[in-house]
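name: query_chain
kind: protein
chains: 1
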Amino acid sequence: MAALAAALAFAGTAFAQAAPEPVGTADKAVFRQEQGNRISENIPAIPDALIERLNRYQNTRGADVAGWLDADCLLVATRFAETAQAHRVCQPLGMREQLTFYPEPVAGLVPSPPQAWRDGFVFAKDNGGDEFSQLYWFDAETRGSTLLTDGKRTQNTGVVLSRDGSLMAYTSTARNGTDRDIWVRDTRSGEARAVVTEGGSWEALDFSPDGRRLLVSRYVSIAESYPGEVDLDTGALTMFPVDGGKAAFDGFQYAPDGRAVYFVSDEPVDGNTEEFRTLRYHDPASGAFEILSADIPWDVSEFTVADDGRHLAFVSNEDGIGRLHLLSLPDHRPVALPELPIGLVGGLAFSPDGGRLALTLNSATSPSDAYVIDIGARELTRWTRSEVGGLDADRFVAPTLVHFPTFDTVDDGDSTDGRRMIPAFYYRPAGTPPGRKLPVVIQIHGGPESQARPGFSPTAQFLVNELGVAVLVPNVRGSAGYGKTYLGLDNAAKREDSVRDIGALLDWIAARPELDADRVGVYGGSYGGYMVLASLMHYPERICAGVDIVGISHFGTFLKNTEDYRRDLRRAEYGDERDPAMAALFDRISPLNGASRITSPLFVAQGRNDPRVPWTEAEQIVEAVRGNGQPVWYLLFSDEGHGFRKKSNADYFIAATMLFWQQHLLDE
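structure:
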């Protein structure tokens, strides 16, 4: 779900509400309001006092690095109005010049390479969050934009440009609406052709320096993908051997010589299983092979090679914290870097001359901002300073990493009694009077193959600082970042084991003297929305209330109605609903069929254009839980998809959520 940005600069307009209209019989009336693209049911009017308290938190914003536009200017994505757009920054803390102006947010910004025949960038834009993204070219000289793809109900993503900018590779569903093929477009003539049509989900990774070969990969699941190479002259596709037959791969890039490659994988090494995804170097001609992050017992999440061939930068994800590393090429020796703030690191981009490295830094107490490292001088310079709504950033709360024991045992050395330990980030209000027990919100991430990390969240900060609520953000089994074994612990028939981890967290809360086990709420989006519903179903007397955003209510109906191009990808994680045994499991564990057990107050929020979790998943659980006599709050935006990316929509949703917590968790 897109980050919740925010301002209530036009609160009177954005939050205007017509008088509610009762729908249904007198004893089961649903109070429904329609305001522009927003439909709300049973949601009370948002009090002015709450709007005022939220105002500054919803006025925070960040800036994310997309690359270099030229030798001196960064391309960044940031929001100054309703949606995130492309901006240019040409000096440290300089003006952010807005380049795109659309009512829909732009994404996937890819600037032209330094040796390209034209200057500008490619970007993607969909319609109302439907994720049928079309690709556009923004020309730096004319300041005009040109549509590059068919403009139809197709998804076009994953742009890679050749070194001279003459070729653009991307993934598209244009051929049949289901398979994600790889296409290559001649940027001079405009002619495009499909170069990989093998079926399944493919992505382009990197052009060889001479532009005649293209590294590609077929994605099956987070634990399984298959890399290969396309000869663009002949069209021949050659798949690379995968040690062990099955492994995960994250990124492939040619070495400067165009023969060797760098890649991230958890392939076995010398027959030994690898838990984590390491950065590797392989030269097929000489047989040279090297693991470049062998001394880091964590996943490598990102890497990039400088155009001048002198350096490689990569990021390791160490218990949710990003660590930046720099190697010289071709000897792979570590290069000293300036000290960075503790947080998340991403958006790596070397300058055209290779002497500087741009990156995005984000922490629990600071929104994303662009920074640049001068490699030779070992100096870190801040290029953007994003707003925090006039708030005192010193009051922001950084979370503590905690681990709590769950129901099963494992020999990992982290627990004295052998019980498996689950990591979580714990945001605790400061200055709590002695003896006062804190209400708790458990925030559960989506994916499920995602990972909660300690990034900046104005919502968490509002809960902690303004409402005095403790926030716990667990990484239950099945989360990424903790090795392949942990990642697979919730697959298929083991789905509800992750819900049992939430039960273990409730036990941990009950044992903490500062936390109030009688006032616990759960909140989550997408798969996290399923986890909210499942937790309410299994622990109705231990959870006061839940907020489900674009969540799955029945895996069978979800798989039936999700977009065609996503169905097989999700079957790999959840199981195949066409298998009678799996269909029976879905019936047994899905919250829709256990809705009679959901007796706590529930708030369901959904985007009408969601291609991932269709809006019908929300409608059916709302109807079923209302059958218990529960006056479920329901919010539907007709101009949103899988999450809320427009500022006014996100503002209203968060305000309604805070009112929900006040009424059902805090008893205000």
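note: The chain has a mean pLDDT of 93.
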